[in-house]
Amino acid sequence: MNQTEIILQVKRDFEKIVDTTLVRLVSEYDRERRKLKIQKQRTYSKVYTIKTGAKNNWIIVLGKSPSVETYKNPGDGIAWNAATYFYDAKGLKVLKWTDPYLNVYSAHFFQRYNQRLKLNLNNPYEIIKHYLIHNMHNGYHCEINNRKPYFIGFSKEGLQLGTLEQGNLMLWRTFVSADLIRSDQHEMKQQVIRTLYAQWMKAVIENKPDTSTARFTWNQLNMLNGKYDPQ
Fold it and tell me: Widest CA span of the chain, in angstroms?
């Protein structure tokens, strides 16, 4: 498949998951939380694997959203993350759809993620799963160099570096752990936090803290301030 066909297939898969599969998984997740009597304050991240009609393997993570203090019901405060993966001539590829972009992660990205966080994981599936669980609510910074957009995705564990390519492809090239972050990158992260906080306060002042956008912003703030525990 060419680039356009890949983008369309991942987009179709993602939309089908949202419309059908996610409804079933949220219900299943809710039943498990209640059956196991999981504390309402816990995130309780749960991983599901599916194969779509297009024969693509997807990893889906569900958990209590940081935007709610206690879990109440499946319709209030569940966050989720999803990616599909496959192998081509260059090795492992992981794809995530975040409208209108297709995020592409290479095997090198996950090798660095595993290495720099000292996870000591040997199975690529386990590395991908760890990434999806711990990087559900990242905050982003963009800079333009020589007319090319460069992105930094900040998380609790560190940052990821990528570029925006033609055809709405976001290529994430490597991961840098928190202990290796430069002072200028740290200041970028603080600016992202200040911007998100201003957006959150605007929503509060306008009495709109329960909108999906405001909740997503609060999730990002919790992640960047180190208050997100996926367990």
Answer: 55
